[in-house]
């Protein structure tokens, strides 16, 4: 009969349970009663094994994989270690995870009764799991759940640093509302102060400069032109404009205002100036964000138009998925559906009409310019979304190509094709990418050299095994020399030289031969003497070592004789 195992995922680790008689228990109507009673639950379901998470990062990685329906190396090793290879089924609560496990070779089970069993495990086995997780208590398990939940939510809500499209959407929305409010506020200041100085409206058309001029002049009849005219010159940077303001103030037909009204106008104008400065800062901030998020698209279409396209599409990824024809009419959906309903001409452009390229084109060629610009915007959006390195290399080449295209539509010369321009841009992009990679590698080499210099200054200590091996090598070298001498003595004895003096001479000759010549040439006494004389001249230090080896060999011989005597006794 097949055993049924249950995989229970917790914040502390993986738990594995098993039921021997699932065919009799798993399809009974009283499954709810078994799960509600702790005693009956423990009698039916048995604990098998538990694999704790070592760190919070490990727990987050495994839980994210389980949610995505993926099998980690820890989970597969845990299941293969604690489950038999044959005759076992694995019950899981997530069907996506079950598909991944079945691809790994596990026989997976998933139904409503499995969900009830795992709900019972969550209800009755958390205290047991808390004890297994390094002796934690139930309160610590709550901390595990809260900490893992915060980490998981943080990773889900975390924005990719290379994709700042959400701040771009909020920034352009605030910029549009701020521009709308500024226009209405500036018109209110002009209308209010116009009753006192109506000629100033035509002389200073800019809203910010108008409000700053109102703050300086205030009441035109009380303004001291002899002492404070330099303030106006410093603000406007135009002497003729200042003189025209002075002339208009002397001939103005506006009526007088009370001090309270003038104070309110002054305060309101100062607020308009602050809002105008805030809008300028927002424009700079938007440009910085788009330089990171969509450098190519912002180079082609401009900062404000790029932000509006991303905002209307929802994100940069959605904009990259759109075709060029969809980008061309993005923002003109009402006109498009109205044209489709009435079977009239569809619109040629939407938000893309705000581009300067379409504004410069003639009425005859506005449709072509919009289609060409939408094509380049689609390419730029895909490059910004999926390129490895953020750069506006492609955007610069596209802008040059767009300018040449507008000249060609106006009757200019034939320009180069898009394929040639993109090939040149891709070469420039690859060189930039290789430079960045080489710089990053050089930084890594510098840091590694700093660490290796510190490590090289420390002399490694010899371990006990290394010391022991060195002594063994010395002993083996000492034992090899007497074996060579024995061979030479045997050869001499076979030739019939049995005198003690001849034996000693042959032994001495064999010693010199072992240092200078191979062992096979020991039977030649003349060659041995010549090699011995050369060895004495060239290798004086080797003789000292030889004496040491002789002493060690004598000691080994004595030890062997003692062993033989003890064995014979």
Describe the model.
This protein has 569 residues and is mostly helical. It has three domains: 3-157, 2-Layer Sandwich (Nucleotidyltransferase, domain 5); 167-281, Helix Hairpins, CATH 1.10.287; 294-436, Nop domain (Serum Albumin, Chain A, Domain 1). It contains 28 helices and five strands. It has helices at residues 22-25, 31-36, 38-44, 56-67, 73-82, 95-103, 112-124, 126-132, 138-157, 165-194, 200-203, 207-217, 225-236, 239-250, 259-293, 295-301, 303-313, 316-321, 324-328, 333-342, 356-360, 366-386, 393-409, 418-456, 464-494, 500-516, 525-538, 540-568, and strands spanning 3-9, 13-19, 46-52, 88-91, 108-109. Strands 3-2-1-4-5 form a five-stranded mixed beta sheet, with helices on both faces. The longest helix is centred in the C-terminal third of the chain and has 39 residues, at 418-456. The protein starts with a strand and ends with a helix. Residues 457-465, 467-484 and 489-535 have low confidence and may be disordered. Residues 436-455 have a biased composition (Polar residues). It comes from Babesia bovis. This is Nucleolar protein 56. GO terms for molecular function: snoRNA binding. Residues 491-507, 544-557 have a biased composition (Basic and acidic residues).
CATH architecture of the largest domain: 2-Layer Sandwich
For the residues shown, what is the average pLDDT? Answer: 78
Biggest sheet, spatial arrangement of strands: 3-2-1-4-5
Number of strands: 5
CATH class of the largest domain equals Alpha Beta
End-to-end gap: 70 Å
CATH topology (fold) name of the largest domain: Nucleotidyltransferase, domain 5
- Which structural class do you get from the secondary structure elements? mainly alpha
Give the CA-based shape: elongated
Contiguous helical run count = 28
> Helix fraction?
over 70%
Organism: Babesia bovis
Pfam family, one: Nop
Main location: nucleus
Family: Belongs to the NOP5/NOP56 family.
């Amino acid at each position: 009969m097949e055993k049924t195992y249950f995989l229970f995922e917790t914040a502390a680790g993986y738990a594995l349970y098993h039921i021997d008689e699932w065919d009799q228990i798993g399809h009974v109507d009283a499954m709810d009663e078994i799960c509600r009673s702790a005693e009956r639950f423990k009698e039916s379901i048995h604990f098998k094994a538990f694999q704790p998470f070592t760190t919070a990062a490990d727990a987050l990685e495994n839980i994210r994989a389980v949610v995505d329906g993926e099998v980690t190396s820890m989970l597969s090793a845990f299941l293969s270690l604690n489950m038999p290879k044959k005759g076992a089924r694995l019950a899981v609560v997530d069907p996506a995870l079950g598909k991944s496990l079945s691809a790994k070779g596990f026989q997976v089970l998933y139904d409503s009764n499995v969900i009830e069993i795992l709900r019972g495990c969550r209800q009755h086995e958390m205290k047991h799991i808390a004890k297994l997780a390094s002796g934690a208590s139930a309160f610590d398990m709550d901390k595990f759940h809260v900490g893992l939940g915060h980490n998981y939510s943080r990773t889900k809500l975390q924005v990719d640093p290379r994709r700042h499209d959400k701040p771009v959407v909020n920034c352009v929305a605030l910029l549009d509302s701020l521009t709308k409010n500024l226009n209405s506020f500036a018109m209110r200041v002009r209308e209010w102060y116009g009753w006192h100085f109506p000629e100033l409206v035509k002389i200073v058309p800019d809203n910010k400069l108008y409000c700053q001029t109102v703050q300086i002049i205030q009441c035109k009849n009380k303004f001291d032109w002899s002492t404070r005219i330099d303030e106006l010159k410093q603000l406007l940077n135009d002497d003729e404009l200042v003189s025209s303001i002075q002339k208009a103030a002397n001939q103005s037909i506006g009526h007088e205002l009370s001090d309270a009204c003038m104070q309110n106008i002054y305060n309101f104008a100062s607020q308009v100036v602050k809002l105008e400065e805030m809008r300028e800062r927002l424009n700079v901030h938007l440009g910085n964000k788009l330089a990171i998020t969509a450098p190519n698209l912002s180079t082609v279409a401009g900062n404000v138009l790029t932000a509006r396209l991303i905002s209307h599409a929802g994100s940069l990824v959605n904009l990259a998925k759109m075709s060029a024809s969809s980008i061309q009419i993005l923002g003109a959906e009402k006109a498009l559906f109205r044209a489709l309903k009435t079977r009239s001409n569809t619109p040629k452009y939407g938000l893309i009409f705000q581009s300067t390229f379409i504004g410069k084109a003639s009425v005859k060629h506005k449709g072509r310019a919009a289609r060409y610009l939408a094509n380049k915007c689609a390419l730029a959006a895909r490059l910004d979304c999926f390129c490895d390195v953020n750069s506006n290399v492609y955007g610069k080449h596209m802008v040059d190509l767009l300018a040449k295209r507008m000249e060609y539509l106006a009757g200019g010369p034939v320009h180069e094709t898009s394929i040639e321009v993109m090939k040149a841009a891709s070469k420039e992009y690859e060189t930039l990418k290789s430079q960045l990679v080489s710089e990053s590698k050089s930084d890594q080499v510098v840091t590694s050299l700093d660490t290796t210099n510190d490590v090289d200054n420390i002399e490694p200590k010899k371990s006990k095994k290394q010391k022991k091996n060195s002594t063994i090598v010395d002993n083996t070298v000492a034992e090899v020399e007497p074996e060579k001498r024995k061979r030479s003595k045997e050869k001499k004895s076979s030739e019939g030289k049995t005198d003690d003096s001849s034996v000693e001479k042959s032994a001495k000759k064999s010693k010199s031969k072992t240092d200078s010549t191979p062992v096979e040439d020991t039977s030649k006494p003349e060659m041995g003497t010549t090699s011995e004389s050369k060895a004495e001249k060239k290798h004086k230090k080797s003789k000292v070592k030889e004496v040491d080896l002789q002493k060690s060999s004598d000691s080994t011989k004595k030890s062997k004789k003692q062993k033989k005597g003890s064995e014979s006794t």
